[in-house]
Design a protein that fits this description.
The protein is built from six helices and eleven strands. By secondary structure, it is α+β, with helices and mostly antiparallel strands. The chain is globular, with a radius of gyration of 22 Å.
Length: 339
């Protein structure tokens, strides 16, 4: 983990990622991270409110092979802006083809040996080609549909102990994993990791901070105050009470259920938060947010556009969550349909 909850405490540092079976004798000034996999990724957010300083932090990040440390090649930053891309898995046989290809290059962790046995029955095995016959092909194509329904129920109707953050609210802990190892007391967090990684693509323990003032907290709402799915064709409000217990800032973001990506609306934005310069506060310090196909008159600054025919969900993030969040003395309102 890098950043304020990492070994450099947010002051900057160097990390050396060591792959499976590799070792290093002289770590020098590097913090060593042993990866169990060949393919890795890392993500970071720059939280400085000054865009110039934030941009400078991005430009200062360097990624290079260890052998080039004396004279590293420039790091190439690529933006997806203006390019078509998708963040969802294929919903046909291509999904299984990609899974087979990835498994060819990766070692098998102990916790994954049983899933590997299940895949073996479907013709997905290390060192062997993927060539399903017609019977297996039909099974795999059907499994795409059925499996995603299972995944949606596991993610959007969470039944994990303690996942509902306030008993009388519809907000859940979006991340139900206990730790990066995804291991509980006497069991592996199979369904917990399936829940989070259907919704998202990465996890750091900083995203589920238990230390006031650092890291983040993620709350997810998948239904309205009456327990009904959030419908892109309806209008809703969300009351954010005053004194949000976030040291840095808070943000309420809209995602499309189908893609689990930021809503792709004509408005061109998917969130409202305390850093929005045009956000309008009520006299008591609270904020009313609005969701729907069209903005309520005079409320455009606090509105996020939703899309008829698409269901959506929201994450409420607190950056640097404070004690009133952890002791639950501060309570977020529900997303409520306007009738």
């Amino acid at each position: 983990m890098i950043g304020e909850m990492g070994p450099d405490a947010g002051n900057g540092g160097k990390t050396l990622v060591v792959g499976p079976g590799q070792s290093v004798d002289d770590t020098g000034e590097y913090t060593v991270v042993h990866s169990p996999m060949m393919h890795i990724m890392f993500g970071f957010r720059t939280l400085d409110p000054d865009p110039v300083r934030s941009g400078a932090l991005v430009d200062a990040v360097r990624v290079f092979p260890h052998r080039e440390r004396a004279n590293p090649t420039p790091t190439r930053l690529v933006s997806p802006d203006g390019k078509p891309w998708t963040g969802i898995q294929p919903r046909d046989l291509k999904y299984w083809e990609l899974l087979h290809a990835i498994l060819q290059d990766e070692p098998v962790e102990e916790r994954d040996r049983f899933p590997m046995a299940w895949l073996r029955q479907l013709g997905i095995e290390k060192g062997k080609p993927f060539a399903p016959d017609e019977r297996v092909r039909k099974i795999l194509e059907r499994a795409i549909d059925v499996g995603e329904v299972f995944a949606q129920a596991n993610a959007f109707v969470k039944r994990f102990p303690g996942s509902r953050y306030w008993p009388d609210r519809q907000w859940d802990l979006a991340i139900v994993l206990d730790n990066s190892a995804q291991r509980g007391d006497g069991y592996d967090e199979f369904f917990e990791r399936a829940s989070w990684f259907y919704e998202a693509v990465s996890f750091s323990e900083a995203m589920k901070s238990t230390t006031p003032g650092v890291g983040q907290a993620y709350l997810g709402s998948y239904s309205d105050a009456d327990g009904q799915w959030l419908d892109g064709g309806q209008n809703y409000t969300l009351r954010v009470p005053a004194d949000v217990p976030a040291k840095l800032f808070w943000s309420a973001t809209v995602y499309t259920v189908d893609t689990r990506c930021l809503i792709d609306n004509e408005q061109g934005r998917g969130d409202r938060g305390s850093r929005a310069p045009d956000l309008v506060f009520n006299d008591d310090g609270s904020v009313d947010l609005y969701y729907g196909p069209s903005a309520p008159s005079g409320k455009e600054s606090n509105w996020v556009q939703t899309i008829p025919g698409q269901h959506w969900f929201s994450y409420f993030r607190l950056y640097g969550p404070l004690e009133p969040y952890f002791d639950r003395s501060w309570k977020l309102g529900d997303i409520t349909m306007v009738r």
